[in-house]
Amino acid sequence: MKCPVDDTTLAISDRHGIEIDYCPTCRGVWLDRGELEKVIEREARWVEDSIAERDQPTAKPAEKVVEKPKKKKVTSFLQDLMEFGQQ
Asked: What is the mean pLDDT of residues 71-82?
C-alpha cells in the first residue's frame, strides 16, 4: 500500500495486536477499520488500571536499593503504541 501523502510504500507494525500502517518518510499513521476503537478501549483500560494501582495502599517503604537504569517509562498505552518506529 502507498502513502496517500508522498506515495512511499507504507510499513506495517503490529503493536499489542493492533496493526498500524505508517509512512517511514512523513510519519503518517493509518489504521484499518475497528483498530481506532481498539486503541481507545485499551487506553481507557490502561488509565483505569493505573488509577486503581495508584489508589491501592502501599506497604512500608523498604530500604533504598540502587537499581540499574531502566528503560524510558511509558506513561500511557497510547504512548507505548505509537513508539513503533523506535524499537
From this structure: 66
Burial 33-55 (b: 16+ CB within 10 A, else e): eeeeebbeebbeebeeeeeeeee
Task: Identify whether the C-beta of residue 16 lies closer than 8 Å to the C-beta of residue 78.
Answer: no
- The x, y and z cell numbers of residue 16, run together, are 499489542
CA distance 49 to 43: 10
For 43-62, give the DSSP string. HHHHHHHHHHHHHSPPPPPP
- C-alpha angle with apex 59: 57 to 63, nearest 5 degrees? 145
User: Which range of residues forms the domain containing residue 34?
Assistant: 1-56
Model confidence pTM above 0.90 = no
CATH of the domain at 30: 3.10.20
Residue 25: name the closest of 12, 9, 39 by CA.
9
